[in-house]
Amino acid sequence: MAYDEQLAERIRVVLADAPDMIERKMFGGIAFMLGEHMVCGVVRENLMLRLGPAGVDGALAEPHTRPMTFTGPPMRSMVYVEPAGVREEADLERWVGRARVFVATLPPKKPKRERRPRPPRL
Q1: Do the Cβ atoms of 33 and 22 come closer than 8 Å?
Q2: This prediction's pTM
Q3: Residue 43 in contact with residue 24, Cβ under 8 Å?
Q4: Is 79 helix (H, G, I), strand (E, B) or coil?
Q5: What's the rounded Cα separation, in Å, for the pair 100 and 34?
Q6: Contact 37, 51 (CB under 8 A)
Q7: Cα dist. 26→41, 101, 115, 121 in Å?
Q8: Least packed by Cβ within 10 Å: which of 30, 77, 83, 119?
Q9: Tens digits of per-residue pLDDT, 74-99?
Q10: 103 touches 39 (CB < 8 A)
């Protein structure tokens, strides 16, 4: 599934000051991570944001937003912003900034447990 590469590039510019930013293929699009937490991404032509449950409620009151539904019920912490909501750079910066503020409140993720190799089957 393709995603809007121009929007992804605009997000890269907005997040250029984050030394720990990484990108991952996710949800059939691309996600931008800070400190191992997803902040935002692009799915098809939509901006995807992680705002937390309280942030989602406020965001859905604004134009050009809708709940993120991926495989059923809406995701409680996520919203989509349609292209019309991020045409201006200031709008994109504002939305991504809101997601960054939320993600900054999350605790660091625990290191993944190292797996022991399985003995060979005989």
Answers
A1: yes
A2: 0.86
A3: no
A4: strand
A5: 8
A6: no
A7: 8, 21, 24, 34
A8: 119
A9: 888 999 999 999 999 999 999 999 99
A10: yes
pLDDT category, 113, cuts 50, 70, 90? low
**80 and 74 in contact (C-beta within 8 Å)?**
no
Dihedral sign from CA coordinates of 21, 25, 29, 35: negative
Using alpha carbons, select from 99, 81, 112, 113 the residue that is nearest to residue 37. Answer: 99
Return the structure tokens found at 68: 């993120």
- Reading the block at residue 76, the tokens are 């409680």
DSSP 6-28: HHHHHHHHHTTT-TTEEEEEETT
CB 11 within 8 A of CB 32: yes
